[in-house]
Predict the structure of AbrB/MazE/SpoVT family DNA-binding domain-containing protein.
Amino acid sequence: MQVTIRPFGNSKGVVLPKPLLAQAGLGGEEAAEMTVEDGAIVLRKAPRPARSGWAEAAKALAAKGDDALVMGEFGNADDAELTW
């Protein structure tokens, strides 16, 4: 597919067709990682921050009541001797 490189202020840019972005898995993304590799401009999904979405997932589990301990409560054998 051939695209036109257009001026955008002091830069230049291209318009990426929606079907092409969807095919690359970038249709719903707001950001992408751009690099130059072997003379080609490459767009990739931006890496997600570590633990992204964990808080929302934990809240959803708790709302369903699906956050019970798997092994249950247990202590160490020597815990009875400790003063808390």
Remarks:
- The helical segments are 18-23, 54-64.
- The CA atoms of residues 4 and 10 lie 16 Å apart.
- The longest strand covers residues 32-37.
- Strands lie at 6-8, 11-13, 32-37, 40-45.
